[in-house]
């Protein structure tokens, strides 16, 4: 896990506790392309570094995750995909799996919209996830120089493992 990603999420968690206006601005930023809402700049740019281009994948991922965090700041030590798998297991709704498969097929141009919708579902059921890990994953997904197929496979594994019913038996029985 990236130390930079962890520090960014810790910053957002602290911001949540003392600046409701900042959280509102970051939530509202989800209505725009990542990095296109000026009211979010003061909270994100300090972490963006000296990117060579405004469409730098890491910068875009920072803006997207900041908005997603503001929308649903509940943190748990599970991947985003595992959180969605848990949601499927709890709700038993085929539409969740369909949404997840659509998310896996998303490209860099529309992935944030799929994530926004999925985060809304997770928020409705109070299921948290590891935002720092999502930041690292999304930076990779948005990078035009990398192939996200391995990331998609890892997300699929995490999702389907978490979606499995919890066994009523333990190994010791």
TrEMBL record:
Coiled coil: none annotated. It comes from the Bacteria. InterPro entries: CRISPR-assoc_prot_Cse2, Cse2_sf. This is CRISPR-associated protein, Cse2 family.
């Amino acid at each position: 896990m990236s130390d930079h990603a962890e520090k960014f999420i810790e910053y957002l968690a602290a911001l949540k506790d003392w600046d409701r206006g900042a959280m509102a601005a970051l939530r509202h930023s989800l209505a725009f392309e990542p990095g296109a809402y000026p009211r979010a700049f003061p909270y994100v740019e300090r972490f963006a570094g000296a990117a060579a281009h405004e469409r730098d994948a890491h910068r875009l991922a920072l803006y997207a995750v900041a908005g997603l965090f503001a929308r649903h700041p509940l943190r748990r030590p599970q991947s985003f995909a595992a959180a969605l798998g848990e949601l499927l297991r709890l709700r038993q709704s085929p539409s969740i799996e369909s949404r997840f498969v659509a998310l896996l097929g998303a490209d860099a141009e529309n992935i944030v919209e799929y994530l926004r919708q999925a985060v809304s579902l997770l928020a409705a059921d109070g299921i948290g996830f590891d935002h720092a890990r999502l930041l690292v994953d999304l930076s990779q997904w948005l990078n035009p120089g990398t192939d996200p197929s391995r990331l998609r496979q890892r997300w699929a594994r995490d999702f389907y493992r978490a979606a499995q019913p919890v066994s009523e038996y333990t190994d010791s029985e």
